[in-house]
Amino acid sequence: MKNYDVIIIGGGLSGIKAFINLKKNGINVLMIEKSSYIGGRAFSFKDPLTGNYIDNGQHVIVGACKEYLNLLEETNNEENFIRIKNYQVPVIKNNKVSVLGSKFIGGSLGLIISLIQYKHLSIKEKVLLIKLLLKIKYINLDSDINKEKNFKKWLKINHQSESTIKFFWDIFLKPALNEEIDTIETKSALFVIKETFFSKNPQILGLPKVNLSTLWDRFEKINSRNIMKKTIVKKINIYKNKVENIILSNGKKLVAKNYIFATQYSSIQKILRDSNIDLNLKNNLDTSPILGIHFWFKNKITDDRYIASVDSEIQWIFNASKNHNNNENHIVISQSASSKWMKMDKKEIKKIFLKELNLIYPKANQKNLEKFSIVKQKDATFLCNSKNELIRNSVPLNLKNIFYSGDWVNTSWPSTMEGAVISGKFASEMILKSLKR
Ligand SMILES: Cc1cc2nc3c(=O)[nH]c(=O)nc-3n(C[C@H](O)[C@H](O)[C@H](O)COP(=O)(O)OP(=O)(O)OC[C@H]3O[C@@H](n4cnc5c(N)ncnc54)[C@H](O)[C@@H]3O)c2cc1C
């Protein structure tokens, strides 16, 4: 039986980051991944309905996602990402487009200038919005907040109108936290706003130029001998306060000095349950769904790369073909916090969103439509609420040679690719430190 220094269970972004960090330091690592692809929730698949490769979700980043950007660099993916300067977001309301984020000026100043020019708010609303943004810039998240935990109520206390909430706050926060603005917690919202607009990080919006799984092709190719795909870790065996070995679904036993659990929290619960380790991990993370609606048109419907929509059912539209530089006329509508659509029939969803899309782009109509596909991700991300916070702050099973990574580990970030990569970095650094002792 081959012995490894470290076995990483899970090939999502947190597992990939941990793998790279350990390998760089001469550690003999094995990655075990349940599915047939690497990338975890950031993946693409061949859609059986249309035969096209599609991403399970849009996966947008901002410049504050420093560790994710580093990972792209480490995996030679710099060229595979579009970087939009100063978060320029065209917002459409009643067929009028107004852009948030200045084309030429970055930082807080650029944001304020674009807000002054923003057509979807009144002058009074803009003044109150800019005032609040400047207050947020200097707010201390640990001490200054706060009495009001609910962010919508907090916005109201800070004189934000319903339309400011809809035409500004909702556009950024709903996709960032995958949650309705009514239930978002103040601390998480302010963390995201401060990191995005007021940190020293580059002010960019990042979009992949290629299908998500393609991003990890090179990593997989180089490390193929140390990656086991289509393999499930079923159980662990413990001896003298350490994991002694792990058991795979094919009955095989594997041994390592250290183990990183880089799976979703629910998988850890399952593995420990199946190992007869009774730790009372009954509380599940509260999750939130994302809906992806994919349309392919015979003829081009727009040249826009992406657009946020505020007065229709549609939240964000991405022009996948323009971003991927192909001529499939593939348009993706991404709906965050999409519980209301989860039980609806796919044909009904198609009908509603094609009609809505047609109001924005008249060429998006039934006659021009070639094919469509709907991707429902029920447990796409977890919510940033106090119940989840308790889970995130606790260690499922505390043993000498077990380490945890995954977006659920508390890194201050919500359920995002950045949180996942940071957690993978932390877990691998903890192992490196323990090996030096
Ligand atoms: C539709 C959608 C859209 C999203 N959009 C964005 C976005 O725009 N921006 C953003 O930052 N984030 C976004 N996210 C969130 C982001 O994808 C995740 O936060 C991140 O990818 C999580 O990475 P991870 O490594 O922590 O976990 P995962 O990606 O879940 O990886 C865990 C891996 O462990 C494997 N595994 C589980 N159990 C076992 C087992 N027993 N044995 C072996 N392997 C196992 C799983 O198969 C999986 O590959 C989105 C997510 C979804 C679903």
Average pLDDT figure: 94
**CATH 2nd-level architecture of the largest domain:** 3-Layer(bba) Sandwich
Distance between the termini: 26 Å
Which parts are unreliable, with pLDDT below 50 for 5 consecutive residues or more?
none
CATH top level label of the largest domain = Alpha Beta
Q: Tell me the β content.
A: 15-25%
Question: What is the number of E strands?
Answer: 19
Structural class: alpha/beta
The ligands found in this model are:
flavin-adenine dinucleotide
Provide a short characterization of the protein structure:
This protein is of the alpha/beta class and 437 residues long.
How would you describe this structure to a colleague?
Helix content is 34%, strand content 24%. With 437 residues, the protein is of the alpha/beta class. It folds into three domains: 3-43 and 213-285 and 384-436, FAD/NAD(P)-binding domain (3-Layer(bba) Sandwich); 87-202, Orthogonal Bundle (Guanine Nucleotide Dissociation Inhibitor, domain 1); 287-382, Polyamine Oxidase, Chain A, domain 2. The strands form four sheets. Strands 1, 2, 10, 11, 12, 13 and 19 form a seven-stranded mixed β-sheet that branches. The chain has a seven-stranded mixed β-sheet with strand order 8-7-15-16-17-14-18, with helices on both faces. It has a three-stranded antiparallel β-sheet with strand order 5-9-6, with no helix packed on it. Strand 3 (44-46) and strand 4 form a beta hairpin. The longest helix has 20 residues, at 417-436. The radius of gyration is 22 Å and the shape is globular. The mean pLDDT is 94. Flavin-adenine dinucleotide (FAD) binds at residues 9-15, 32-35, 40-42, 56-61, 232-233, 262-264, 267, 271, 290, 377, 380-381, 406-407, 415-418, 420. Residues 9-15, 32-35, 40-42, 56-61, 232-233, 262-264, 267, 271, 290, 377, 380-381, 406-407, 415-418, 420 line the site of flavin-adenine dinucleotide.
